[in-house]
Amino acid sequence: MKSTDKHRKIIRAATKVFAKKGFFNARISDIAKEAKVADGTIYLYFNNKFDILLCVFEQELGKLIEHVNLLLDKETSAKAKLEIFITNHLEEMKKNRYLAEVIHIELRQTAKIIREYRKNTFNDYLKIIGVIIEQGQNEGTFRRDIQPDVVQQVVFGALDEISICWHTGSSWPYTPEEVSAQLTSLFQTGLLIPAT
């Protein structure tokens, strides 16, 4: 197996193991077993468990960034872009339970890592929202008295909570499209310049 294929296989296995057991309870041997490789093989690609988790975030969030940017490039208005971002995130989290649990649970619980990690790809992902808000402000669509970096945290926080509802055993009855429509409407109404 090519080294890049094995690396991807380990990342996929780690995502599943971290989601099922939690980062702190997961062991390197669990990841190796799920990836169907020897324990020692893991150390050919990663220094330790923290390194694996960071790589999961980097690779998976990198894919989300790439995909959502392709979608956003096809749209011009900030209002439409905000809806695209929200819908895409919800669809991806609904589709990939293990990734959703790792992103939304481990981003909260693994504080030591996240203090450093938030300076990297995760922050790049959040900044996409901030850029959309700035565009809307420059277009004269969104209110100028709202800080884009505050909005990006609020939007991601809402997406975080909704993703958790889908994957914690609760009977959350809404589709990504339904939730996206409601969230987009809520955020856009709050962001729009009041009619005079």
Give the SSE map.
Blueprint: H1 3-21, H2 28-35, H3 39-45, H4 49-72, H5 78-95, H6 97-109, H7 111-117, H8 121-139, H9 148-167, H10 176-191
Helix pairs in contact: 1-2, 1-4, 1-6, 2-3, 4-5, 4-8, 5-6, 5-8, 5-9, 5-10, 6-9, 8-9
Provide structural commentary.
There is one protein chain. By secondary structure, the chain is mainly alpha-helical. It has two domains: 1-46, Orthogonal Bundle (Arc Repressor Mutant, subunit A), CATH 1.10.10; 49-189, Tetracycline Repressor, domain 2 (Orthogonal Bundle), CATH 1.10.357. It is built from ten helices and no strands. The chain has helices at 3-21, 28-35, 39-45, 49-72, 78-95, 97-109, 111-117, 121-139, 148-167, 176-191. α4 packs across α5 (78-95) and α5 (78-95) packs across α6 (97-109). It is elongated. The mean pLDDT is 86.
- Measured between the Cα atoms of the first and last residue, the distance is 65 Å
Give the biggest beta sheet.
Answer: none
- The CATH topology annotation of the largest domain reads as Tetracycline Repressor, domain 2
Count up the helices: 10
Q: How many domains, in number, for the residues?
A: 2
Structural class assignment? mainly alpha
Order of H and E elements: HHHHHHHHHH
